[in-house]
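Re: that backbone. Tokens:
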């Protein structure tokens, strides 16, 4: 009985395990890809991470010119002995400060703070209890050379803003490119399916011919070499079909890797119309051909180029005084009040007393000064030259590559599509003629006026022609998809998915 229960439990667990990992049938349509993309993908997360990195750098720059509230408080107590008896060692000492400060983009930094300190001590000179000092101060600093009037700071802020905007554009472009890559994989699956359909039909014919030849050989009508040739044809077409099956698995695995929602799906293709799609591509191509100039209104790359050019100018402003002396003017205005009233028992103070002393008497003072830092040696100048060269080369490479991609994509698509359509028409004629020839070749073979090798060669030529036609149709679709990855806003039906 125990063994029976154990065996039953194993079967139940096996059933649960199988059901948990059973693939879910899915009829895939091109229009479903966008829905799956909307549910998320690691690739989209990576694209967004790049944008967020630029956005963070922009906000990090804005932090530098945002006001800050700061504070500090402390308590100190000691039992140390005074070196000179009449000089008191103050303990405990209580201190608190609260202030606000801000760096302004125009090369200034300002601040205001209020602080108070209260301390007590006992020495031969007397007792001090809660002696209190309160101060209010205002500070300002102005850059006189490297960042005069905020020249470098404003360039850095503009640079960070431009980089963030460009990253946002790049995010939109890359998301569209990701969807384009999924559509290319989908149409590769369609082409693969068409190739498999044709290969299966021709394999079926090859098997029938091989079986017929075996019977003829057994009846002493056919030769051994004919049997071997037909069996070789069956093996070749079986190998072709196996290769296409492997190709299908590769495309399916690619989709599942890019779209986690499909990881547990058993993917098959829903109904499609390849010829209609080619007509849509032709319509889209005609719309593209109607543009007499580069249609910058249909791409986001022109805005990206404009931002890259702005960043190039900003970097020149930032770098040109990188190795120059750092000179700044600073000033400080401070009012200090002290409460330390003489009493019979010693000196005593209070917070209120120090505030009254500061507000009722003129306790204001000021400080003005100049800070100068001059780099010595060639290290700073060498770093400046390297940074200038790096920024110039990096951004110019981006600009040049982007401009070339935009211009070339539009200029070459019409020629490429025209050539591929000519290939399709030629292959169609070739396939029709091969079909006609094959009809006559079969008759000649049955009349013993053609060899088996001639017949098999014509059959293989027909298969090759049909497979090439499918590959060329796929190439046409891929060309227009590559174009739409650059001109993402092209107004045509094929670009609405």
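Recovered sequence:
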């Amino acid at each position: 009985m125990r063994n029976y229960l154990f065996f039953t439990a194993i079967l139940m667990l096996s059933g649960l395990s199988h059901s948990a990992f059973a693939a879910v049938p899915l009829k895939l349509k091109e229009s479903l890809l966008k829905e799956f993309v909307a549910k998320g993908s690691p690739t989209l997360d990576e694209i967004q991470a790049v944008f967020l990195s630029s956005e963070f750098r922009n906000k990090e720059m804005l932090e530098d010119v945002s006001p800050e509230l700061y504070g500090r408080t402390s308590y100190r107590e000691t039992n140390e002995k005074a070196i000179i008896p009449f000089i008191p060692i103050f303990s405990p000492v209580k201190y608190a400060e609260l202030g606000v400060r801000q760096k302004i983009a125009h090369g200034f930094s300002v601040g205001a703070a209020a602080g108070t300190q209260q301390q007590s001590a006992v020495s031969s000179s007397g007792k001090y209890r809660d002696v209190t000092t309160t101060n209010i101060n205002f500070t300002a600093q102005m850059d006189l050379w490297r960042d005069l009037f905020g020249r470098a700071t404003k360039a850095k802020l503009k640079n960070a803003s431009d980089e963030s905007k460009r990253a946002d554009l790049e995010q939109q472009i890359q998301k569209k490119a990701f969807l384009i890559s999924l559509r290319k994989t989908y149409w590769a699956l369609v082409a693969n399916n068409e190739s498999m359909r044709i290969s299966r039909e021709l394999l079926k014919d090859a098997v029938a011919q091989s079986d017929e030849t075996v019977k003829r050989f057994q009846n002493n009508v056919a030769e051994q070499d004919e049997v071997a040739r037909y069996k070789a044809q069956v093996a070749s077409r079986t190998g072709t079909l196996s290769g296409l099956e492997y190709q299908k698995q590769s495309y399916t695995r690619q989709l599942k890797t890019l779209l986690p929602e499909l990881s547990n799906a058993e993917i098959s293709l829903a109904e499609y119309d390849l010829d209609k799609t080619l007509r849509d591509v032709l319509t889209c191509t005609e719309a593209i051909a109607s543009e007499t100039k580069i249609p910058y209104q249909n791409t986001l790359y022109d805005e990206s180029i404009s931002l890259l050019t702005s960043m190039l100018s900003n970097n020149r402003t930032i770098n040109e005084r990188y190795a120059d002396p750092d000179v700044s003017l600073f000033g400080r205005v401070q009012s200090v009040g002290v409460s330390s009233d003489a009493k019979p028992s010693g000196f005593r103070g209070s917070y209120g007393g120090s505030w009254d002393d500061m507000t009722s008497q003129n306790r204001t003072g000021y400080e003005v000064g100049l800070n100068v830092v001059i780099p010595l040696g060639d290290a700073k100048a060498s770093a400046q030259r390297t940074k200038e060269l790096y920024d110039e080369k990096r951004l110019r490479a981006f600009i040049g590559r982007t401009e070339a991609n935009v211009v070339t994509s539009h200029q070459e698509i019409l020629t490429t599509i025209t050539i591929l359509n000519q290939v399709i028409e030629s292959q169609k004629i070739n396939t029709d003629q091969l079909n006609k020839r094959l009809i006559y070749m079969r008759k000649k073979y049955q009349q013993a006026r053609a060899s088996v090798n001639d017949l098999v060669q014509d059959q293989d030529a027909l298969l090759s022609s049909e497979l090439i036609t499918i590959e060329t149709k796929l190439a046409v679709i891929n060309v227009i998809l590559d174009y739409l990855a650059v001109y993402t806003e092209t107004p045509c039906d094929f670009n609405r998915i």
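Residues 23-57+154-315+387-495 form a domain with the Outer membrane efflux proteins (OEP) fold (CATH 1.20.1600.10). Confidence is low (pLDDT under 50) at residues 4-11, 13-21.
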